[in-house]
Specification:
Three copies of one chain form a homotrimer. By secondary structure, chain A is mainly beta. Chain A contains six helices and 20 strands. The radius of gyration of chain A is 23 Å and the shape is globular.
Chain lengths: 417, 417, 417
């Protein structure tokens, strides 16, 4: 820690900075040497703090629904009350003309093995280093979202539906990993990406018209477990029609080797620890995805599909081996604006046939779900979403991985600050 | 994450906001469309960051005192040195005219099962949504203090005595839970609640003249464990006499079903896991409390009492069953103000007869304690408290739950920022 | 929590403050009573927020290197990818004329026992209380760096080499502990300490020309385990020659009793839990160190040496007993400044013969390491370091504590904000 000099001479100055310090009465020589540069901006002009909190309540409709488990919402299931799904604080800013940072802890996370919750854990911690004056090319280094899947890149703060679709979201744990990426966004695309977010049309933000990179591959906040990196490539383009209507289409793909976790389990009367039919470096893990988003002006449509291969428990052989997977979703929505704010009714259908590779023994997961609801934004700061969901899902968290069918009433209050 | 558009077009803007963005040179159309609204305030005008840190040192007087254990201070007992009791950071603000947020992590918390400490864990994460222009009615949603007990609602930053009284504090773990509440404060009460805090009279803040709500019931940062909510109702009124003296009186009550934790234990030579004599939804858990606070202008007096029913280990039957509980405290204090700052000598007596429901097997807890000390505030930013305590307490953390008698010298340094 | 009054009357006001509140429309009486004092500064003028993130990638050169383990970098070894070594957020500031705070969580920490990472854990949480108007004397209370060793006091944000030398760094876990300290810095030294940091010369900050104090002794974020405190004393003086060249020399020492951790282990075919040949209060733990730093203007030289006694596993006797330790490092560096920023090639040699007291069973640790690299700072906000290291190290984390020899290519990207 830079210690007392910080306390006596102005507190917001990076210790390594030679120019940005506040003048201290005890250091006149330093103050005199300080040039009037852009780095003389106050700390609160260089970085900003904002965030959002999501609070949920799920009501199971009927006894069957109480056995439902969903990776996207740990408050679904038996003996649940209110839950804080996300409590985010974002520290971000353009620190210099060519470097921006983005640090986002979540304050509703739980260390593995702890029975107490709501600890602060990183989601994002990355820097964007701009390679060109016009900011078309940048390097992103750190823990950040992996550019695979459109909905995975869209912030949960902006998503209309309560959870992401499992087919896409089962690719990258918490949508993020640690790596180095390059993004290219020409000026026209950059402006459109920005507009689609700021306008309330719920864009995904700017992950480049072209993006590519390498990353560890075991998911956010997990150490790597092999000496190989995953690689990813991403394309997305926001078209704008003459009438002002936006349409975004794109595709992406990733490939690497994933190390699965196994443990003794009992399924169908047999107790076994599955073998893993894969090289030392891990199981084949690769996917391609495609997306189309017709923005709600006022009617919108959104769909994604993915296919790939990944590790999956083969019960007959008691072995985890490489198998195919496929799935996606389609969503329709309509945006009403008025004195009441913004009201967006929507319906989302999703399906998935493939493994849940993050879970112990990577069980096969089958999902068929229909959710219909409405999101109401009385102001920019408050969102209330109410939805009815008809779920048919494998319980991937507990052997013997039963398939459960049930209906839920779901409510979410989100506040933005 | 809202990604690069944030970095290129101003960093403090909630992604969902249609109006608040900083103008970006690459987005002239957006800048032009930005109306001059109140949401155009800079992020640091909308939210503020402050906090406080409490550091403690307890010196046991005599050998017996080394076996003391107290739920309010984990640094009491054998082989203890300095301790950080609380390290708080508060992010709060009036985000819009009708929504305020309050997010408070504690940076001196420990996940269950970890031997390393000082992790960041939420205390508060709530939004106040104001229902009327005059801000008399509001809904509070999220994790917040449960309006039961006056001292429980008063911030530890403001409390004169080192710890809260166990009789009241054993009702709601960490004073908080996840739920939805309504508070009503007419203008005159709102002004008085604010004055009692800002004046240094150490008020509890505004939890309404009337407050009521529902919450999970297992305590802060713990998942719910049944399908029933607890409910609470709260009354408190700050009277002001003609001579300027303030007097606050009130009462509150809560009711619900609490799920206890049991484990194998050895007491009196018998090893057993207690049974629980309660329905599936949990044990009866209900209390009423009353408070009176005569503010120190300069002489002050403060007392609370609670009675109720809750789960308690019945050793004879090796069963946890519903039993009565009662207890409270009385405190006198005197506030000297002068060039030296503020000096408040105080004496606090407390008693409790009832269970410690948060602890494994919910053992019976008997507390009789007298603490006398003085709090010195040389400035608003620094508080030094020195106290002598005579404690007679059950060790509820370890079977066989012995009763310990001992004396302590206690010191706390608090800094506010 | 100070509750709603905060939300309605200005959010950045410490609840205990009688003077600093923002005027609230609902509290005219309070606004009128507010004097124009220095505490009326806005919250963002009183405190500042800044930080830095370090991302690493190590490439082992040859098969042997894959078995290397180093206390300073958990991303060295088999099956590693990218890693976030540090993700720091600093909240600091001069809260009043005589009190400053410094609160620094790290967002890349892991609770013991958790397999998920990147949780927020305190590094520093202290207050400086200035005893004199000229700020030469201060008391520092809280968790802070222990003034032993020069490199230990220098921020990792400023260090040129990737990790600290083990000889010095094995004295105090995470360089910090909880305690109370006094520091004395006369005006001339204070100005030099400040200049050495701000100028990019990578000073250690101001830990006084003289410093001394007492602390728990088990390391940062660990509870104390005995009723004795460690004590420390520290001297350092920054000389300035007529030609402007700076030279800092000093020495320090600490002494106390350290409680070791033991567990069953298997070494050389024998399975045993070592006994501890020490009193109940813990093992003898004392060291002296000396440092000399010739600042890089442009050529620099830096060296430290330490000797002492501490607990060490004696394999022959299967006992942990007090043994001597010694070690240190020497470093040369050269600072090139130009249009490309700042470029600092360096070479660092270190050696250590003594125990790793933080590790289970306190095994003996032998280190001989040579690192040569270059740090490039294109701007104040970005640092890229590339180094080649030849390590010969005992693996102190896993019995039988083999000695490993290997070469590494190391890369670190650091961003400051």
């Amino acid at each position: 820690a830079p210690a007392a000099s910080v306390a006596t001479t102005g507190t917001a100055t990076p210790a390594a900075s030679g120019t940005a310090g506040t003048a201290a009465s005890s250091s006149p020589a330093i103050a005199a040497a300080r040039p009037a540069s852009s780095s003389a901006k106050a700390w609160y002009e260089k970085i900003g703090i904002r965030g959002y909190v999501q609070m949920r309540y799920n009501q199971e409709l009927g006894e069957d629904a109480k056995d439902l488990k969903s990776p996207g919402d740990r408050f679904i299931g038996r003996e649940q009350g209110f839950g804080v799904r996300r409590a985010r604080v974002v520290i971000s800013g353009d620190v210099t003309d060519n470097m921006s940072i983005y640090i986002q802890p979540d304050l509703a996370s739980t260390p593995s093995g702890s029975s107490t919750t709501h600890f602060a854990q990183l989601r994002d911690a990355y820097a964007d280093i701009w390679l060109t004056k016009d900011k078309t090319w940048r390097i992103r280094a750190g823990q950040s979202k992996i550019p695979y899947g459109w909905e995975d890149l869209q912030s949960s703060q902006n998503r209309i539906a309560l959870d992401r679709a499992d087919a896409l979201n089962s690719g990258v744990r918490d949508e993020r990993d640690l790596g180095v990426f390059a993004y290219w966004s020409p000026k026209v695309a950059k402006e459109r990406f920005a507009y689609l977010q700021k306008s309330g049309l719920k864009g995904s933000g700017d992950y480049g018209v072209i993006g590519f990179g390498v990353y560890n591959g075991q998911g956010a906040n997990r150490p790597d477990r092999n000496d190989q990196l995953h690689s990813v490539v991403h394309f997305s383009y926001p078209f704008k029609f003459a009438n002002g209507q936006y349409l975004e289409v794109g595709a992406d793909a990733y490939s690497g080797r994933y190390k699965v976790s196994t443990a003794s389990t009992t399924i169908g009367g047999r107790t076994f620890t599955p073998g893993v039919d894969a090289p030392e470096a891990g199981s084949t893990d690769r996917r391609v995805g495609a997306h189309v988003v017709y923005y709600p002006q006022p009617f919108g449509f959104q769909a994604e599909w993915t296919v790939g291969k990944g590790p999956e428990l083969d019960l007959a052989r008691r072995t985890i081996r490489t198998r195919s997977l496929r799935g996606g979703y389609a969503q329709v929505m309509y945006k009403f604006d008025g004195g009441f704010g913004s009201l967006i009714p929507y319906a989302k259908w999703q399906t998935y046939r493939g493994a849940s590779k993050f879970d112990t023994n990577t069980p096969r997961m089958e999902v068929d779900e229909l959710e219909a609801g409405v999101e109401w934004q009385p102001s920019n700061a408050i969102e209330l979403a109410v939805a009815y969901a008809n779920m048919r899902r494998t319980d991937v968290s507990t052997a013997p991985h039963r398939k459960i069918d049930g209906q839920l009433l779901r409510v979410q209050l989100q506040v933005n600050y």
